[in-house]
Amino acid sequence: MTNRPLSNRFPSSNYDFVGKYSDVILPSEHTSRGTFFNAGKGRSLFKVELSLQVVKNTCTCSGEVGFIRSCYNQENLTVLSYKSGNKLALSGSSLKGAIRAHFLAVYGYPMLTADLFGFSHGESAESRVLFSDAIAGDARPEYVSIGREWKPHKYCKSGGIKFYIPEYRKDINIEDLLRRGYTCLETIPAGTKLEGRLIMTNSTIEELTKVLAVMSPDQGGKYENCGFRIGRAKPFGIGRVKLLNFKVEEKSSLTSGWREIDVKDRVAGSFQKG
Prior knowledge:
Largest sheet: 6 strands, antiparallel
Structural class: alpha+beta
Shape: elongated
Radius of gyration: 20 Å
């Protein structure tokens, strides 16, 4: 068991609103959910094996808490990490939510975002983007102490999306947090590799590359600190993951088999533009 007090190891974050669109704008016509592919319109079924890496300790919570000896060698209220079986993991639903928010913020296409990731507003359509859990293998959790999370006080006049912006803050004092009470998180440690899968139905290669690009591909270490934000305690700088590697297979019809395709250059180009 490893204990990590809040420190400059985890830069805290301010937040701001990006984008001028609201995600409640719905597509007047959306792509069919009745088929996995539409070859006549260049649409296919894609299966992507994902290799992710935790950049900053991350916790997508399980919905459970416990009083366990985690931080400062004493019993604390600890938010428990999501697990797949008995292994630390990022939940598929948390991955989808995080990527959806980043997709809308980066590209600013509310209709395409709703069409890809699903919507429910009057009428509804399920997502064409499906994530499995991303599982961390044999990694052991690290426990990180945080202060009481505060309510946002910034008013968004333009209907934008709240994003956390990393910064180092000098006004956080561990002893003060201890006096006021604090919570511990059971986190997946930085550097941990996770394996998962992305499925996209009735989608184009362009849509696929855009989704992969907002997952912050590693780019051979060129962007060492990149990563999409996910999970608890983002105001404290916790919760950042990047796409380390991926393999894409395409199925374009019921009678065709799966074939591996290389889209890494297209993803890299889309990432750099975004």
